[in-house]
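TASK: fixed-backbone design
INPUT:
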């Protein structure tokens, strides 16, 4: 069964290009488009779909407000936020609201398609480019006073996977680097997130920085 998608963005040309890109994938189907926040909310209430691709900067209602209303209407809706902003503040706020993914508009279509599939599985996704931005922002700052003993819960291999995930590497890239299968990487990822009680890549990046897993180059 296809993953049904609603695109909410105020730029018609961007929506058209996005739809053409997504519908090349056999498992993705764009069921509707919305050009402003109000139209997006109305679509959420009357249409059946799985994933909302939501522009952060929307007329009439902001992307954040649309996300809030949409999730009150449909608490389990998967939302992928599209934005030009490389700012961790936006990421944190949207994840608090309940969005599951954050993708920069300048990123490749591959990143967006991956994000859609990931959130449809009920997981979170942070654009690797943004993860790198977060790392450069925090590395070199004073260590957090909240450092605890959770790092000791991880095996050496899980620490390696944690570090590579925080740097923005995909499962496939990690598998290649560590010479293991993608399924094994996913298993390590699931175990380490469970041990650390982390819900998103943003939290994983913060944990990795606070516990010295990421080093400035």
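OUTPUT:
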């Amino acid at each position: 069964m296809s993953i049904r998608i609603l695109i909410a963005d105020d730029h018609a040309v961007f929506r058209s290009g996005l739809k053409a890109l997504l519908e090349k994938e056999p498992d993705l189907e764009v069921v509707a488009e919305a050009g402003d926040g109000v139209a997006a909310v109305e679509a959420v209430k009357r249409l059946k779909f799985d994933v909302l691709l939501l522009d952060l900067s929307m007329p009439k209602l902001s992307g954040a407000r649309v996300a809030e209303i949409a999730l009150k209407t449909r608490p389990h809706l998967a939302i992928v936020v599209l934005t030009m902003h490389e700012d961790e503040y936006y990421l944190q706020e949207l994840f608090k609201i309940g969005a599951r993914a954050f993708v920069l508009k300048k990123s490749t279509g591959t990143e967006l398609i991956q994000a859609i599939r990931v959130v449809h599985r009920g997981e979170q996704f942070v654009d690797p480019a943004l993860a790198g931005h977060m790392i450069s922002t925090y590395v070199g700052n004073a260590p957090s006073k909240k450092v605890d003993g959770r790092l000791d819960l991880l095996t050496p291999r899980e620490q390696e996977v944690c570090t590579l995930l925080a740097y923005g590497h995909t499962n496939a890239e990690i598998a290649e680097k560590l010479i293991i299968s993608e399924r094994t990487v996913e298993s390590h990822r699931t175990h380490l997130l469970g041990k650390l009680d982390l819900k998103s890549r943003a939290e994983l990046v913060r944990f990795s920085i606070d516990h010295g897993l990421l080093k400035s180059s």
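COMMENT: The chain has ten helices and six strands.
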